[in-house]
Amino acid sequence: STMNGLDEEAMAPQTFLYGVVLEAGKEVVFNPDDNNLEHQLDLRMACVDPSTKDELHMVEVEGQDTEGLKVKAVLVTLKPSTLPSVCLGGFTITPPAVFRLKAGSGPIHISGQHLVMVEADQSFSEEEDED
Amino acid sequence: STMNGLDEEAMAPQTFLYGVVLEAGKEVVFNPDDNNLEHQLDLRMACVDPSTKDELHMVEVEGQDTEGLKVKAVLVTLKPSTLPSVCLGGFTITPPAVFRLKAGSGPIHISGQHLVMVEADQSFSEEEDED
Amino acid sequence: STMNGLDEEAMAPQTFLYGVVLEAGKEVVFNPDDNNLEHQLDLRMACVDPSTKDELHMVEVEGQDTEGLKVKAVLVTLKPSTLPSVCLGGFTITPPAVFRLKAGSGPIHISGQHLVMVEADQSFSEEEDED
Amino acid sequence: STMNGLDEEAMAPQTFLYGVVLEAGKEVVFNPDDNNLEHQLDLRMACVDPSTKDELHMVEVEGQDTEGLKVKAVLVTLKPSTLPSVCLGGFTITPPAVFRLKAGSGPIHISGQHLVMVEADQSFSEEEDED
Amino acid sequence: STMNGLDEEAMAPQTFLYGVVLEAGKEVVFNPDDNNLEHQLDLRMACVDPSTKDELHMVEVEGQDTEGLKVKAVLVTLKPSTLPSVCLGGFTITPPAVFRLKAGSGPIHISGQHLVMVEADQSFSEEEDED
Fold first, then answer.
1. Closest residue, chain C, to D79 (C-alpha)
2. Which ipTM did the prediction report?
3. Residues 16-75, chain B: which have Cβ within 8 Å of C?
4. Which residues contact E33 (CB under 8 A, 6 or more apart)?
């Protein structure tokens, strides 16, 4: 175990809490800078809060498609008086990704798990370096 | 690793972002053209956006049943003022599939994960070819 | 691979699209007639359509309990103006099963995945027959 | 295979349909009496029916915590005119458990899968008994 | 097997019922004090009850991020007349964590499974201590 919350020797994914707040004109980037570790988000919930204006809010996520090209997808659409919370059911996000409000002024809260594991490739190359 | 986002040596499925927009009279086909790779969609969310008319929208998906025959199923029904987002909970789509609006003029956003893995059959036949 | 969509040599479950429409007075039976294959439904969504009357619709499923006796369970209750779609979250149905509307005149759409796999018992008995 | 729906030789869990109806003043106990089998519920849906009064209904489940002490938890809160169905997303219940309505007069329907598997402990002790 | 509900020899996670009630000004801590066991919550449902005031209630969870730093995330937002129950879809919480109401006076009920397993690290060190 290390000083921080991460046990770097573990092969199985370790689970941390993830939460962000989205507001108009503010992007949130998910692109952890780690050499040896693989990162993934399992998004669980999207929620308004009492200060969220009663209009339709739409959250967009930008990531990569199978060609390595930039792709945009709508993650969730919420309105405080109609649907204040939505279960995202484990929507998996692999880095690099960007979250932003495409409609509405927010705030909108996104939460879930941040999974961290030793990257398969990396562990193989370490073995090759040993001799 | 290759030039694009895909690591072709990996056996475990790799996860990419998938997002489409459905509008009246426009079909979206999911039928990736790959020899060596198996593709699958894990659909997570269906959402309206602020430009979606306040009427009932119904999304149909067309795929194959166990006899190899064409089968249609209703994926989701949304209305902006009643239910602006629905969790699809990992609805699995195997190619070839077609998405279309059966009711409503859209736009309706469908999102989730695009999984890519080396096809089991393919990897076996490659071993057989080696001798 | 065979003529139809099914690869009979595969041990892992294969995934097909499943969709049915329920209307008053019409039962839908799920009881595939196969000697060597195991069938299962993973139900994902229940949805109204624009022709569904604005009343409470209740879907019942009839299957077997652990004693082999007939058991009935409520799968979902929908009303177009309140809840036009519901995620069923992977409700697993093993054959034989029957779906019917217990309330409301429909139509109600049920969709999900039809999983097919080589039955464990069957594969064992084939090995025993070989000598 | 046995007379009933259960194959007692199987090690993998077998899946049966489970459905109960809750009404005011009526408790439903889940405590299967089996020596060799492990039982579990994966609850999927909670639903009102057309005869359910339009008031808030709250379902409580009573089970055991990690100390072996009795613990109560709220499973779901439904109201016919607001939320006639809720996906429970695979809420796992291990016996002994009791379901009851803590508010509302019902009926409320709870459904899901009843999983049965050979208990790990039991199978080990049988091996020990063999000598 | 032990006196309480926990079988300490098991390696696979054991599942117990978990339920808490959140009220304004009251924090609920999840931080089991065990040397040999790993604990995790799989949260399934958040629900109002008939005594919950008809206002927006927001539940916050506080945990640790990948740096070992304190992070806050919004778990769910509920309002009795709009959304009396929300499926949390298996939101995983690892200790130490704290639940609290950030908005609304409650009560709000959170429920799910409490998983307990022998910690991987711990089992390895016990083997090393044996000589």
1. C82
2. 0.88
3. 40, 46, 56, 58, 61-69, 71-75
4. none
